[in-house]
Amino acid sequence: MKITDAKVFVGGPGKNYVTLKIFTDQGVYGLGDATLNNRETLPAAYLKDYLIPCLIGMDPRKSEDIWQFFYRGAYFRGGPVAMAAIGAIDMALWDIKGKIAGLPLYQLLGGKSRDSALLYAHATGHDLEDLMDSVARYVDEGYKAVRVQCGIPGMPTASYATPDGKHADQDYITDFSGIIPKTEIWDTDLYMRFMPDALAEVRARFGPELHILHDVHHRLLPREAAEFAKAVEPVGLFWLEDPTPAEDQSALRLIRQHSTTPIAIGEVFHSIWQCNKLISEELIDFIRVAVTYAGGITPTRRIVDLAGMHHVRTGFHGAPSHSPISMAAQAHLNVWVPNFGIQEYLVLGTDACGALFPSEHSVKDGFSIVSDAPGIGVDFDEKEAAQYSYKPGSHPVVRLKDGTLWNY
Ligand code: KDG
Ligand code: MG
């Protein structure tokens, strides 16, 4: 069996999904997602210029050797661009493998460890009242777990992942007005004074059963993060995410020494090596890699197994920048992973997305239910795709009030 061709498509409803389609000489094709939010043209070019020419003629069933060829075989290894591109190839090869075997991906991984997988939704509010409405809407829809982000009184602009105006459009992760970023202003003191009480109010309003998550988005210094994690202990968070930037991983020890609040990190990681210390020294409770940025299903399985040895559970990244292909690959992993924790879930523009990526995967009462179709179980409608093209977009940048550049 041989790979005969591969095509890359960039575009989608409200997003720049990077979709890879690999064709074989037996009529079976595989699909992968290489979307790297706000840098989408780069994995697309990496695929077209460097990886696809090598892929033609390879045996698609040799997914392990092909992964090693592109990762180990490259002199300059890794990085988010290359890993998103390799990740798309890996997903497409597992898709082909499942289609040849006539089995859904989860069966190739080892079968189901659970019938369905717990999801968390994103509740956001311009202010606390707005946030309570947002949480209530998800609870009414059946969600058992909700990430809560709230505007901070007195903060000059909207803070991370909160709408800039009451019930404003919640598409906060990409601004498609061009590649020059907008600026958000951050004030740690205001955040530290407001957010622990706000989280406590959410707990008081919704009771002990709701799983509450919160994302600090790398904004705190290690000592501040330790203080925050200790302050929110009575809330009983499901997790506190990205309390500090994870470049300085030893800093995470300070949080552990002062608090039992569960910590989740990893959405920007693109290698098992970035996960290794945090997992093996048991400095985190949840590993947040995405199957796209981590380089596909092959290395994600290894991260999952490493995590399993150290009581670390999964909480794969699932921001709307991931296409339904990688979300479905994660849905398969989630029903298999023995040390599963939770899955982030947020899909914008569901109807248009469903037309572009038809599938039988579904969500019910805050749980994801995986399709039994062979492979990853998501198709790609090239006719639908013809209406979309790349739109330049950006993440905001963050500055302190005095102008100092801070972490987004
Ligand atoms: O591209 C950046 C987003 O994926 C990120 O801001 C979302 O932090 C995020 C999350 O937890 O989903
Ligand atoms: Mg996050």
Features:
single chain; 408 residues; alpha/beta; eight-stranded parallel beta barrel; three-stranded antiparallel sheet; 16 strands; 36% helix; globular; binds 2-keto-3-deoxygluconate; binds magnesium ion
Tell me what the structure shows.
With 408 residues, the protein is α/β, with parallel strands linked by helices. Helices cover 36% and strands 18% of the residues. It contains 13 helices and 16 strands. Strand 7 (211-215), helix 7 and strand 8 form a beta-alpha-beta unit. Helix 1 packs across helix 3 (80-101) and helix 5 packs across helix 6 (188-206). The longest helix has 22 residues, at 80-101. The chain is globular and about 60 Å long. Bound molecules: 2-keto-3-deoxygluconate (KDG) and magnesium ion.
